[in-house]
């Protein structure tokens, strides 16, 4: 059967010109992900693709298609349509129960390789026509099994998305606490105004002073530098040629703290780090794009290595490992770090020496202990959710082509999921 036996391609969707509606641009489509997490709202101009919940979006232009950009639309209010890039192809299931199957079909290597082979146009601006997508031959799977396949793969993606949201919430809480305590001094402001600090028990509140000194810092705190609490690019030794855990730049996430699992590689030349060190990309555009993470999976006492374009940030003794990460993700810090960049266009690098000199307010040691007790469990939970999602992603990507081709039956797939769960 053909793809257009299962789905309408670019179906007519009514949206009045000038109507305010949700808008999705190409950058909002995930790479090999299902869900769109960012929508804008703007007046419809009369141009662009139009779609509703349950539709699948396919990026038709190179390199977006090759990079896996696509999504299944969800989260739109009521039955209101949204619109987006003219470079989207919209696939709408002819039967509502096929919505997830249609999406996952577009994710298979067989489907994508045929579409890529049918691209036309000048180098760097090639596109696949919607008619070519419509005519792709697909496996003839019964309606009931299509629904089950979509449900199995969808359940895995649902869990991955839940993990993402939970991890994002926990991380945001830790980062907000860092800014509240060490940048904005909210507990001190509250006590100075005669109020109890918000969201804080009495014992923790007692650790903070009730006023500010002439230097503008909480009484008892001192002016310091970031290097007073963080070791930058700590010295470590690895024998050249030794097989040790390795992380490259693509292993760092642009959001969240969970890196890809390290691989074993013979040490040559690069940064050296241990579990719980924060890795910050220093080169353009990786720094601007947010590439940052916490090293993990190396093993107790193991020194790993990675890209020469990492800045390694390790918490000093008595400072929780959550602190360097919260600093590295802070918007004000990143703005200052970007301002230190020098070099030729497109190859600029941040200066870790200037970053290390950034001012930092130094609290009493007992405040470090309180920050540690609150934020480290959060960081560990975020790491756990991230690793679980990586396992589920691998399972989903393994099951996807086998279920779609009919090689693996639904019952056997459920057994494999139960073994992992």
Describe the protein's architecture and organization.
The chain has 421 residues and is α+β, with helices and mostly antiparallel strands. It folds into three domains: 3-139, DNA methylase specificity domains (Adenine-n6-DNA-methyltransferase TaqI, Chain A, domain 2, Alpha-Beta Complex); 141-208 and 365-421; 226-362, Adenine-n6-DNA-methyltransferase TaqI, Chain A, domain 2, CATH 3.90.220. 36% of the residues lie in helices and 17% in strands. The protein has helices at residues 3-6, 99-107, 109-117, 130-134, 143-182, 186-192, 202-205, 322-329, 331-339, 352-356, 365-405, 410-420, and strands at residues 7-9, 20-24, 40-43, 49-51, 56-59, 70-72, 82-84, 88-93, 222-225, 230-232, 243-247, 263-266, 271-273, 278-281, 292-294, 304-306, 310-315, 359-362. The strands form five sheets. The chain has a four-stranded antiparallel beta sheet. The chain is globular. The mean pLDDT is 93.
Overall number of strands: 18
Q: Given the C-alpha coordinates, what overall shape results?
A: globular
What count of structural domains?
A: 3
CATH architecture of the largest domain: Alpha-Beta Complex
SSE arrangement, N to C = HEEEEEEEEHHHHHHEEEEEEEEEHHHEHH
How would you classify the helix and strand content by structural class?
alpha+beta
What is the first-to-last residue Cα distance? 35 Å
Chain-averaged pLDDT: 93
| Topology-level CATH name of the largest domain | Adenine-n6-DNA-methyltransferase TaqI, Chain A, domain 2
Beta-strand content:
15-25%
Strand order of the largest sheet: 1-8-5-6
Multimeric state: single chain
Instruction: Evaluate the radius of gyration.
Output: 25 Å
Give start-end ranges of low-pLDDT stretches: none
- CATH C-level class of the largest domain is Alpha Beta
- The CATH superfamily of the largest domain turns out to be DNA methylase specificity domains
């Amino acid at each position: 059967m053909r793809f257009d036996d299962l789905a309408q391609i670019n179906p007519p969707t009514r949206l009045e010109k000038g109507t305010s509606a949700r808008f999705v641009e190409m950058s909002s489509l995930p790479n090999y992900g299902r869900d769109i997490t960012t929508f804008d709202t703007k007046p419809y101009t009369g141009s662009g693709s139009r779609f509703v919940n349950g539709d699948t979006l396919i990026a038709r232009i190179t390199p977006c298609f090759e990079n896996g950009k696509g999504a299944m639309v969800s989260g739109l209010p009521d039955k209101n349509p949204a619109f987006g890039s003219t470079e989207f192809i919209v696939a709408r299931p002819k039967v509502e129960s096929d919505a997830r199957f249609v999406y996952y079909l577009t994710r298979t290597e067989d489907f994508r390789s045929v579409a890529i082979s049918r691209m036309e146009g000048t180098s760097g601006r090639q596109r696949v026509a919607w008619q070519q997508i419509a005519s792709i031959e697909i496996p003839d799977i019964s309606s009931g099994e299509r629904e089950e396949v979509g449900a199995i793969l969808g359940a895995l993606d649902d869990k991955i998305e839940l993990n993402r949201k939970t991890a994002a919430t926990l991380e945001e809480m830790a980062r907000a606490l860092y800014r509240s305590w060490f940048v904005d001094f909210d507990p001190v402001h509250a006590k100075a105004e005669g109020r109890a600090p918000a969201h804080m028990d009495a014992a923790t509140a007692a650790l903070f002073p009730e006023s500010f000194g002439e230097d503008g810092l909480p009484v008892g705190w001192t002016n310091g530098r970031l290097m007073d609490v963080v070791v930058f690019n700590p010295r470590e030794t690895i024998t050249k040629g030794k097989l040790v855990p390795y992380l490259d730049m693509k292993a760092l996430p642009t959001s969240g703290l969970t890196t890809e699992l390290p691989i074993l590689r013979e040490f040559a030349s690069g940064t050296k780090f241990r579990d719980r060190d924060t890795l910050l990309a220093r080169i353009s555009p990786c720094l601007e794009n947010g590439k940052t993470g916490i090293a993990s999976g190396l093993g107790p006492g193991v020194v790993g290595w990675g890209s020469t374009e990492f800045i390694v940030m390790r918490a000093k003794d008595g400072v929780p490992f959550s602190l360097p990460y919260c600093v590295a993700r802070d918007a004000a810090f990143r703005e200052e770090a970007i301002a230190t960049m020098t070099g030729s266009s497109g190859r600029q690098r941040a200066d870790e020496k200037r970053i290390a000199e950034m001012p930092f307010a130094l609290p009493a040691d007992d405040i470090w202990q309180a920050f540690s007790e609150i934020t480290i469990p959060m960081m560990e939970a975020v790491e756990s959710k991230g690793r679980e999602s990586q396992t589920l992603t691998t399972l989903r990507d393994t099951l996807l082509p086998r279920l779609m081709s009919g090689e693996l039956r639904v019952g056997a797939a459920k057994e494999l999921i139960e073994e992992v769960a």
